[in-house]
Amino acid sequence: MAAEFDNRLKDVIWQRLPDFGPLVHLDPAEPVEALRTNLPITLDADFVLGVGQPRRAAIDISFQVSWDADTLVRVFAYNALLYRHLNVPVHSVILQLRSRRNDLRLQDGIRYSVFPELGEMYFRPEVINLWEQPLEPMLTGGLGLLPLAPLCRMPEGMTREQALPEILRRINERLIAEAPPELNDTRWNSTYTLTGVYLKGYDIRNLFDRYRIMRESMTYQATLEEGRVEGRVEGRVEGYALGEANGRLDERRQALLLLGKVRLGEPDKLLVDAILGIDDLERLQRMRDASIDAVSWNQIIETN
Fold first, then answer.
1. Closest CA to 242 of 254, 252, 250
2. Domains of the chain: which residue ranges?
3. What mean pLDDT is predicted for residues 291-304?
4. Of 29, 176, 264, 295, which shows the fewest CB atoms inside 10 Å?
């Protein structure tokens, strides 16, 4: 079950893989593919790209919300295993989502030796601090970059809370105008999750609800119009309502699990099964709101 959520998070972020090229210095004219690897160790939210055809390099990207002392060592070990597995040079990237003081251990990398005059080991990954990235390229670039916009550097003189309403308005307008329905929903849910992870304690529910109501109204009107044109209004609206209800339940379950996993770590199977069995939409919303400040999974599951 945990692997299923890892894959869901990766799919949400990488459904439009070429959009992320500028972040990791890729040539848009060069083929890039997502690689599935079966290695002895994995990293949370780790993603591997193959570059070139034939493959000339690989890029290993690790998304980090909080620092732990083993991160650098694990990225180093994964780099070596990928090099052995793929037989091409591997560039490791640590993409940090939440602002904090730069850790010199990440900047310095790993360097050690037993007999310095005879040889040494040196490894240094690239570190991308998302909060230092300019906002405008995220809002005007590929649709895949939109969920990262709330985590970037805010406009001069504005706090994140002050800037978010305008940022979300622009994200919403672009998704409605440019994204197919399946990408529209996943990008919006991803934006909610990432914003909640960053802004602990900030009431994001009211901020997002105004757009949720507008989006649902537009979807309903489009479905109703389609039914009128084809002369099957009643059946289409009923089918839409049932599908929408089930879809919203699953959407909120998965958003809760993703947000909780990033903040609190992997839930055990009993907790996952309990959340997947909840069919109360409002309770799921309250649980997701509670997860922003929760200190344990039990605190979330006890929310009524």
1. 250
2. 2-132, 145-301
3. 83
4. 29
What is residue 167's predicted lDDT score, i.e. its pLDDT?
93
Residues 120 and 80: their CA atoms lie apart, in Å, by 15
Residue whose entry in the numeric block shows the structure tokens 């709101």: 289
In the three-class reduction of DSSP (H, G, I as helix; E, B as strand; rest coil), residue 228 is classed as helix
Q: Which residue has the higher pLDDT, 112 or 284?
A: 112
Whether residue 63 contacts residue 40, with contact meaning beta carbons closer than 8 Å, is answered with no
Q: Is the pLDDT of residue 200 over 90?
A: no
For residue 276, count CB atoms less than 10 angstroms from its CB and return exposed for 0-12, middle for 13-18, buried for 19 or more: middle
Closest CA to 58 of 81, 93, 99, 88: 88
Question: Which of 262 and 54 is assigned the larger pLDDT?
Answer: 54
53: confidence class by pLDDT, cuts 50, 70, 90: very high
* Torsion over CA: 257, 65, 128, 36 (sign): negative
**Cis, peptide link before residue 54, omega less than 30° from 0:** yes
The structure tokens 């344990």 sit at 296
Q: What is the pLDDT of residue 18?
A: 78
* 157-171 confidence digits (pLDDT tens): 998 888 998 999 899
Here the tokens at position 237 are: 């609206």
Question: How many degrees, rounded to 5, is the angle at CA 156 between CA 151 and CA 160?
Answer: 35
Q: What is the rounded distance in angstroms from the CA atom of residue 16 to the CA atom of residue 133? A: 19
Exposure b/e, 197-234, CB count within 10 A at least 16 = b? bbbeeeebeebbeebeeebeeebeeebeeebeeeeeee
What distance in Å separates the CA atoms of residue 223 and residue 54, rounded to the nearest whole number? 45
